[in-house]
Amino acid sequence: MSDINAAFSTVWTTIEPLPTHWRQIFRDVRSLAALRLNWDGYDATPPTQQVINRIMELLNSCRQAHVAPPCRVAASPAGSIVVEWRMNGTYREAEISDSPMIEWMSRNPDGTFEHWETPIWMDTDNESEYVAPAYSDSTQFSELVRI
User: In a 3-state reduction of DSSP, which class is residue 138?
Assistant: First the structure.
């Protein structure tokens, strides 16, 4: 089984039942995994398997923390994936790349913007290995994405 099929197989077998909107978000990520070099006609880089795995972990963490599903996932020309939430006048996005950090951006109802980063994994033995999101406390994690 390919890495991408293994990642999606885990989602389909561990989420029962999977609400319709979450199912569509995971399908959207699967379609992003199929992108190839120059997918936009302007030399865009497709997301790597590592980025796909990370986005799947982020989305699973959101779902398990009972965070509302994002309204959209999209690939960037640089090979990262952006996840977007919109609610109550707030726009929040998380950008996942090959970096060990999640880049966050929020536009608040008053028009102000905030930018910050959080680690996506913690592995004290080998920083190059992806282990799991650094959010073992679902309350802490849900506060990052709750809007």
Answer: helix
How is residue 82 written in tokens? 């952006």
Query: Cα torsion for 112, 98, 56, 89, to the nearest 10°?
Result: 10
pLDDT at residue 17, rounded to an integer? 58
Tell me the mean pLDDT in the region 76-103: 93
Domain boundaries, the chain: 3-145
SS3 60: helix
pTM for the structure as a whole: 0.74
- Peptide bond just before 17 cis, omega within 30 deg: yes
Q: How far is it, in rounded angstroms, from Cα 9 to Cα 16?
A: 13
> Is the peptide bond between 100 and the residue preceding it cis, with omega within 30 degrees of 0?
no
Q: What is the mean pLDDT of residues 62-84?
A: 92
Q: How many CA atoms lie within 13 A of 9 on its CB side?
A: 6
Q: What is the mean pLDDT of the chain?
A: 78
